[in-house]
Amino acid sequence: MTTLTLQTPDDWHLHFRDGDMLQETVAATARCFQRAIVMPNLVTPVTNREQAMQYRQRIMDARPAGSRFQPLMTLYLTDATTADDIREAKRAGIPAAKLYPAGATTHSHAAVSALDRLASLFEVMSEEDMLLLIHGEVTDSDIDIFDREKIFTDHHLSAIAENFPKLKIVFEHITTKDAAEFVAESANHVAATITPQHLLLNRNDLLVGGVHPHNYCLPVLKRNIHQQALREAVASGSHKFFLGTDSAPHEKHNKESACGCAGCYSARSAIELYAQVFEELGCLDKLEGFASHYGADFYGLPRNGGSITLTRQEWQVPNEITLPNGHSIVPFFAGKVLQWKLTHTSMD
Asked: Could you tell me the CATH number of the domain that includes residue 288?
C-alpha cells in the first residue's frame, strides 16, 4: 500500500493555547482536521458562554486563508459553575464541558475541588445533552502518580457513569489497561480518546537515560503493559475509542526549565503518527473509523465530507518550530522519521 485515503478526520481533544501561539497551533490542526474539541484551560479559564465565544473568534481569526476548520468549544467546570451556565453554553452551540480535578494538569488550579458537588450539574447536562469530558485522575498527595487514573476510575468515574446513564462521558486521554477495560465494558454512554504519545511511548521513554522533558505529559506515560492495552484497544476497531491528540504546546524554555511543563505538541504530525501506530499493529483499515467516524457519532454530529490522503513517504519531524514571538516549540517526535505523510486534502 502506497497511499491511504480517509474521510476527513477530527481531533476530539486538543489545546490551542492563546495569543500569538494561535497562528501556529490553529494552522497545524487545520491542515488535516475538519473540527476539534478545544480545551478551556487558559490562564483565565473559559468558564461561561461569553468567554467561550470570544475565544472561538480568536481561533477563527487565526485560521489560514480559505480554511473551513471549525473549533468546537468547551466549558471549564468549577465549583462555581451553575445550571444556567450549562444551559446558556448549550444554546450557544457548545457541545461539552470539561471536568478537571483541581491540580491535575496545566492551569487546573481553578477546577473542581469536590466531585460530589457536581451531581446537580450532571443532571442538567444530561437534560441538555451536553457531553462531560473528564481528565480522570485523583490528585491526593498520598497517591502515587502512576496510580491516579486507576483510583479515579474505581472511586469516581464508575459511580458517575452508573448514576447518570443518560450523560455522555468521554474519558479523555486514557493511559492504563484499567481505563481501557472500564470503557470497553461500560454502557454505550461512555467512550474514550487516546493520544499518539500514549500509543507510541511508555514510561521508559520518559525516564531511561535521563528525563526527556518533551515526552512529559499528564496523565504521565505508564509502563509498557498499559501502552500495549491501549494499542489493543485501537486495533480492536471498537467504536468506543477515538482520536484525541491532547496536543499541548509549551515553549521550549518552559518545557526544559527546572519545573517543566506537561504536554506534547503533536499537531504538526498527528495523523501521520497515528498512521504509524496502526500500520505497526497491522490494522490500517481501522484508522478511518478511529479518526473520522466514531468521535462524530458519539458526539451526535454528522461525519465530515471530503477526504485526506496520506502517501508512504519518509519525512522528518522538525527539530523545533519558531513562533511569532521568536521563541520555539519542540514538537512531539522531533527529529524522528515517519513513514506516512499527508499529501492531499479535500474538505467539504
From this structure: 3.20.20.140
